[in-house]
Amino acid sequence: MFRLASSSLQAGASFFATAFCISVIAAASTALTVALELPPWMMFIGWITWATAGNAALARTAGVGCMLVGLFLANLASVSLTALHPALGSLALPTVVFVVTIIVVSSRFARPFDSGTSYYLGLVGFFAAGAPPSIMNFAELAVAGTLGATSCAAAQHLGTFAEKRIRGRAPTESVENRVACTAQR
Fold first, then answer.
1. Which of the four, 8, 29, 38, 185, has the lowest number of CB atoms within 10 Å?
2. Domains of the chain: which residue ranges?
3. For the segment 128-157, what is each residue's pLDDT rounded down to a tens digit?
């Protein structure tokens, strides 16, 4: 009975230490993003990209690449929409959406760059910014998104380290899964 209580206390302490580490990194990343005059919401899109792109570091890194390609595709889509609108009128938007969707959906055959969700996060990030297509706007969003992905990776590693220190052994539940679940809520 005493062992169960001790184990529960240890698990609770481990959870709160992990949550504290993740929260500190999220707050610090937000402060850095604001100090650099980057959009904080795009930083969190990068965070979500890292957390949802897969379980392996390669898949997550490729997911960030997919997000960046999504930002680039959105820039191209915006330029294409402007160019096609005089000729196609109201059909310009569905045409551009069709072409971009074909590219993104076809990416599932381009391993490891097959994270459709990450492409769409990049696309949404660009259009949510409401900024005109330009290299500077792309760079600003790319830096913010990459900062978020890097922050999520750091939060996962620091959270895992804290959990191992408290428990004195390997964690029973992956901190990466907790970060991913937090990002998905």
1. 185
2. 8-184
3. 999 899 999 999 999 999 999 999 999 988
Q: Are 71 and 125 in contact (CB under 8 A)?
A: yes
Helix (H, G, I), strand (E, B) or coil at 2: helix
pLDDT digits 0-9 by tens, 87-118: 999 999 999 999 999 999 999 898 889 888 99
Residues in Cβ contact with 16 at an 8 Å cutoff, skipping those fewer than 6 apart: none
Residue with tokens 């899964």: 177
- Kindly report the number of other CB atoms within 10 A of residue 168's CB atom: 7
C-alpha to C-alpha distance for 52 and 46, rounded to whole angstroms: 10
In degrees and rounded to multiples of 5, residue 173 shows phi and psi of -120, 135
- Tokens matching residue 125: 């990030």
**55, 108 in Cβ contact below 8 A?**
no
How many other C-beta atoms are found inside a 10 Å radius of the C-beta of residue 101?
14
Cβ-proximal residues to 126 (8 Å cutoff; 6+ apart), any chain? 70, 71, 74, 75, 78, 137, 138, 141
> Per-residue pLDDT tens for 161-175?
777 777 665 545 555
Burial class (CB in 10 A: 0-12, 13-18, 19+), 174: middle
The whole-number pLDDT of residue 185 equals 47
